Automatic annotation (TrEMBL):
It comes from the Bacteria. Residues 16-31 have a biased composition (Basic and acidic residues). This is Diaminobutyrate--2-oxoglutarate transaminase. Its EC number is 2.6.1.76. The keyword Transferase applies. Residues 1-31 are annotated as: Disordered.
Length: 472
């Protein structure tokens, strides 16, 4: 993010003393932030735009060391499907700890692992669950992406990859290659359909159709330079790319294109999974069954866990071809199984669809009174509000340019009002809302009230000019 951090006013105490020991209250809170600024790397991100020190949390609410309470619509970047410290999650973790079961078991079979796998398979699209294999990876989604790419390359004997502009698949080398930020000769970029900033300038069904034709032509043209790749990887809703849902018809078209050409389709459901978009898995909106699903975040019930689920025909690995020391996280599996079961049994995906549609409608109404809101979009409780500069003078532009400076001001104003939101999108001008699926009607109203007030305050402060500086 294009966010700077003030230099610490004083150096921390070397050892001992009230400030070093932390504690709550403003002195302890400011001391912790100063020490973080001195000790942690320049790569830290959330800490820059969200200068808070969480000490307690429950559901939607976080309490900071300064005594302030915040409504958390970041939810650990979508990890906390049930919010903070949900009772069923805490009980599942406590049960494993109290049982005396080993917590570190590599990839050995355990009752906890068996229960997690059984629950996960019960939620998968039927045709995949009936013929699936699972690989437990390292603890993060990017580890699962790396495993999925290695799997596809092993199974097909090919090395190329089809990925999409605006994609985000993680921070390790292979995952970054597949993301939209770094070029790689093995990765062919394809246009991801979007209405507001359509790469073909038309949007809607026509824009999606042109993107699909581009893909087909690229694959079928012997002189395109693309060849037949090992896989296509896509997000059913681009999250970091700006909360852009893939049109259902386009997603079905990608499934048909890959199937007809023997190209495995990898669905990255790291952020969209476990009910977030109004279906248990986002691919279910379109009826698509991918060959591989990459899963993390919410499947661990707030703890680190990542897996790849794939068709058995792709299981061409030799023993030890992909491993990871911490792929047997028993506490995460217990918390994950409890979360998956709770979401399924309480129809929280349906709840996300209903409440998300209501929130989108109110935000779209807000846009009519605020020209700086260029677009409101999303699916379920994965919502994005793109902020623009409506006064920019560019007659050639079909839509106003993004306004990252305004978005950053809105994020700060939200924090001042006790609301935590994230920014994303190509220019970091999309305010993202990822509340837990347990969000109540009253909490949804409070979130939107605070956002509306923050937007109005940022506008009054004059943060409306386009910022062309670097984004994160």
């Amino acid at each position: 993010m294009a966010v700077t951090e003030p230099a610490p006013a004083v150096r921390p105490h070397p050892r001992g003393g009230k400030e070093h020991q932390g504690g709550e209250g403003r002195e302890g809170y400011e001391g912790i932030l100063r020490r973080q600024s001195l000790r942690e790397s320049a790569a830290r991100t959330y800490a820059r735009s969200l200068p808070i020190v969480p000490v307690r949390a429950r559901g939607l609410t976080i309490e900071g060391a300064d005594g302030r309470r915040y409504l958390d619509c970041l939810s650990g970047a979508g990890t906390l499907a049930l919010g903070h410290n949900h009772p069923v999650v805490l009980e599942a973790i406590k049960k494993v700890i109290d049982s005396g079961a080993p917590l570190h078991v590599l990839d050995l079979a355990t009752p906890v692992k068996d229960a997690f796998t059984t629950e996960l398979f019960a939620t998968l699209p039927g045709p995949l669950a009936d013929d699936a294999r699972i690989q437990f990876c390292g603890p993060a989604g990017t580890d699962a992406v790396e495993a999925a790419l290695k799997l596809a390359r092993t199974a097909t004997g090919r090395s190329g990859l089809l990925a999409f502009t605006g994609a985000y698949h993680g921070m390790t080398a292979g995952a970054l290659d597949a993301s939209g930020g770094a070029p790689d000769v093995r990765v062919t970029r394809l246009p991801y359909p979007q209405d507001y900033r359509c790469p073909f300038g038309v949007g809607g069904d026509r824009g999606a159709e042109l993107g699909a034709r581009w893909t087909e032509n690229l694959l079928d043209d012997p002189k395109s330079g693309a060849g037949t790749p090992a896989a296509m990887i896509l997000e059913p809703v681009q999250g970091e790319g700006g909360v852009i849902p893939a049109p259902d018809a386009w997603l079905r078209r990608m499934r048909r294109i890959t199937e007809e050409r023997g190209i495995p389709l990898i669905a990255d459901e790291v952020q969209t999974g476990v009910g977030r978009t109004g279906a248990f898995w986002a691919v279910e909106h379109s009826g698509v069954v991918p060959d591989v699903m990459v899963l993390s975040k919410a499947i661990g019930g707030s703890l680190p866990l990542a897996v790849v689920v794939y068709r058995s025909s792709l299981d061409a690995w030799q023993p030890g071809a992909h491993a990871g020391t911490f792929r047997g996280n028993q506490l995460a599996m217990a918390a994950g199984a409890a979360t998956l079961a709770y979401v399924r049994e309480n129809a929280l995906a349906d709840r996300a669809a209903t409440l998300g549609a209501r929130m989108l409608a109110r935000l779209q109404g807000l846009a009519t009174a605020h020209p700086c809101i260029g677009d409101v979009r999303g699916r379920g409780l994965m919502i994005g509000v793109e902020l623009v500069d409506p006064d920019a003078d560019d007659p050639a532009a079909t839509v106003p340019p993004p306004a990252p400076e305004l978005a950053a001001a809105v994020q700060r104003a939200c924090l001042d009002r006790g609301l935590i939101v994230e920014l994303g999108g190509r220019s970091n001008a999309v305010v993202r809302l990822l509340p837990p699926l347990t969000l109540t009607d009253e909490q949804a109203v409070a979130v939107l009230d605070r956002f509306a007030d923050a937007l109005a305050a940022a506008e009054r402060a004059g943060h409306h000019r386009n910022d062309t500086g670097p984004s994160h």
